[in-house]
Specification:
Layout (H helix, E strand, L loop, with lengths): L2 E4 L3 H13 L5 E4 L2 H11 L3 E5 L7 H8 L7 E6 L4 H9 L4 E4 L4 H24 L2 H23 L5 H10 L8 E9 L2 H5 L4 H20 L4 E6 L4 E7 L3 H22 L3 E5 L9 H12 L2 H4 L4 E3 H4 L12 H12 L3 H18 L3 H18 L5 H4 L2 H9 L4 H21 L1 H4 L2 H13 L6 H8 L3 H12 L3 H19 L4 H7 L5 H12 L3 H5 L4
Parallel strand pairs: 1-2, 1-3, 3-4, 4-5, 9-10
Antiparallel strand pairs: 6-8, 6-9, 7-8
Length: 531
């Protein structure tokens, strides 16, 4: 490999030359400034230029720009004592291969040159094999591969031979029988995105993607990238080798460190378990995302390996029970925004103490929020987006406080829409009726007793109940009592007869008939977990 050193400090220039020769590189040329370096590029035709970013007459970035106009365009590695994100960002935008900080460690320099050689080798092979048309086709093929991978991860494929055939059709070679999915997600992305253009954000993702692809590929494995929900996803095809797995872990730690050092933000890496079949890669992807969600409790800027955490991850997430859901609904009906926020905050803080399965938890909350807005007679999609969008936005949070702030913002939007809806805003009387039911459902209540409580005629209350909730009083009360009975039976602490009394149905035979009519099974069968 032919190397040109462009450095204005003589001692640094000579020191770098000695190190390069100690690595076995013999074809080396030196230049004391950018103008000399540009002339040497034309005459010496180096494969790689190690250039200082600040030099007399012409700096390193200007040298790169001028070199592109020449008939040959070597790989550029910037060597600088300026630890500045602006310099690094500009260098990356100009197509610099790497940005090394002085003093450059021997191992960092060797590693960088090894990657340069690997890139030169790959480019030489591609140049020999591809025509200009092939290059253009490759660009579209890469995009198609990403989209195909993304689709496969969203769907659960069960036909191994079909998947293999599709990979072959896309010219994807997978020589090994082990597959691991990695995710790399930017911590506090919403905060980082403030004031940044779409091009800046795309550049961040591009840097992360390229860095990961190149550094993992150097381990001798096959790696493909795809766009995940809030992360860059990578499918790694590798042989069984415990040492290789350890090297990959070390490489991922290095990627985390480099992102923090050069891009000035942090990322979290999630690693799923290795699977032996393409039909199980979605499982590894889910594990990688679930492992990465541990940053909600333990913080970002780290790597989380699902295999190492499996015993710590609670499989069953806390699910919002019927009573909590009803309390949230009543708060929304009565436009008590702060109370609704307290309910969700308390729910999440309780879940945070008992479970690490935030993905299922966020899905449950997203579904519940959309359902409640629909029950209030409003379509939430125009102002919240789809159920999937809400879920993904919650999953994009890095910690619990950020998640609660995100939920607060969603509730602010919901309550603003509720206030615009006169029917809901003026329905406080019906909200009081529902509130009375939830606190007295296990007593001998009737439409008359509720009407007396809220100073309304039973006939008018009955009419408004059906009009507002599309359910008459008796239907709602029975359904509510049976839902509470389900919870009590599932707890395993009560007999079916005890549950009947606890939910306000004194006639046990009537309770058994009603429970089976609504649920399809008897209370005893449901209690045994077969309902």
């Amino acid at each position: 490999m032919r190397i040109l050193i462009a450095e204005d400090e003589k001692l640094t220039r000579e020191s770098m030359e000695r190190e390069l020769r100690s690595f076995g590189y013999e074809i080396i040329e030196k230049a004391a400034d950018g103008v000399e370096a540009l002339a040497a590029i034309e005459s010496f035709r180096p494969d790689v230029v190690l250039a200082d970013i600040r030099m007399p007459r012409m700096d390193g970035l200007r040298l790169l720009q001028e070199a592109r106009k020449a008939s040959t365009s070597p790989i550029f590695v910037i060597v600088s004592s300026y630890d500045s994100f602006d310099y690094a960002k500009t260098a990356l935008e100009e197509g610099v291969f790497a940005y090394l900080l002085k003093p450059v460690g021997k191992s960092d320099l060797r590693s960088c040159l090894t990657r340069v050689e690997s890139r030169i080798h790959r480019e030489a092979e591609e140049t020999n094999r591809l025509t200009a048309v092939d290059h253009k086709a490759k660009k579209y093929m890469q995009l198609a591969k990403k989209q195909m991978l993304q689709q496969w991860f969203e769907e659960e494929k069960t036909d191994e031979s079909e998947l293999r055939a599709q990979f072959k059709a896309m010219d994807i070679v997978l020589p090994y029988d082990r597959f691991v999915v990695l995710t790399v997600s930017i911590d506090e992305f919403e905060k980082i995105a403030i004031g940044k253009s779409a091009a800046d954000l795309q550049l961040y993702k591009y840097c992360i993607e390229n860095m990961t692809l190149e550094m993992i590929a150097e381990l001798g494995v096959e790696i493909l990238s795809f766009e995940g929900e809030h992360e860059q996803g990578f499918l790694v095809n590798m042989p069984f080798d415990p040492l290789l797995e350890e090297k990959m872990a070390q490489t991922l730690e290095k990627i985390i460190e480099m992102v923090s050092q050069y891009l000035k933000f942090t990322v979290t890496v999630g690693v799923g378990e290795a699977v032996g079949s393409l039909t199980h890669i979605h499982k590894s992807y889910g594990q990688a995302k679930q492992a990465a969600m541990t940053r909600m409790k333990q913080g970002g800027n780290r790597m989380y390996v699902y295999r190492n955490m499996e015993s710590k991850i609670t499989v069953a997430a806390i699910v919002m029970d019927f009573e909590t859901e009803q309390k949230l609904l009543f708060s929304m009906e009565k436009c008590e925004k702060e109370n609704a926020k307290d309910i969700l905050s308390g729910f999440y803080r309780q879940a945070n103490d008992q479970s690490e399965n935030f993905m299922k938890l966020n899905f449950n909350v997203a579904v519940t929020l959309m359902k409640l807005m629909n029950r209030l007679g409003m379509n939430p999609e125009p102002f919240l987006g789809s159920e999937l969008k809400v879920y993904r936005k919650l999953n994009g949070c890095t910690n619990l406080e950020q998640l609660l702030l995100t939920l607060d913002g969603m509730l602010d939007v919901c309550f603003e829409e509720i206030r615009k809806n006169d029917k809901i805003w003026n329905n406080s009387v019906m909200a009081k009726a529902m509130d009375y039911i939830i606190h007295h459902y296990n007593e001998d209540i009737s439409l008359q007793s509720i009407a007396d409580h809220i100073s309304m005629s039973p006939a008018y209350l009955s009419k408004q109940f059906k009009k507002t909730y599309n359910q008459n009083f008796i239907e709602f009360l029975i359904q509510y009592r049976i839902d509470k009975a389900r919870e009590l039976l599932k707890s395993g602490n009560y007999t079916a007869n005890e549950v009947s009394s606890l939910v306000g149905i004194k006639d046990e035979k009537h309770f058994f008939r009603t429970f089976k009519k609504i649920t399809g099974v008897t209370p005893g069968t449901y209690k045994r977990g077969k309902g």
